[in-house]
Amino acid sequence: MSEGCFDLSDVGYVRRVVVGNCDPEHMLPEEEIQKQQEFLNRCLSGTPRGRIIGQEYNFYLLNIGQHQVVVQYVCYHVGFPRRPFWL
Asked: By CB distance 3.0 to 4.6 Å, which of 11, 26, 54, 55 could disulfide with 77?
């Protein structure tokens, strides 16, 4: 097996990372969503390096007055060979 190849049998720890508003009753400010994105980037670039092994796309339809608003978020399942010490 080559060094650059990723195999699911190498995954020893999985972290679920949510990016976006997952609770329509409690909307997050933009700074909080930015922190979620930075955490995901740290998971994908830190040591040990994580890989995305799955994604969930979810959304809510909210009626605000006469307007319909779509609130969406993405859950990333990040696999690591071992649990990172910084988690």
From this structure: 54
Cβ neighbours of 34 (radius 10 Å): 12
* Structural domain boundaries enclosing 49: 10-80
The string of pLDDT tens digits covering residues 41-85 is 999 998 889 999 999 999 888 888 888 888 889 999 999 999 999
Backbone dihedral region of 80: left (phi > 0), alpha (psi from -120 to 50 degrees) or beta?
Answer: beta
Residue 55: helix, strand or coil by DSSP? Answer: strand
Q: How many CB atoms lie within 10 A of CB 78?
A: 21
Return the number of other C-beta atoms located less than 10 Å from residue 19's C-beta.
17
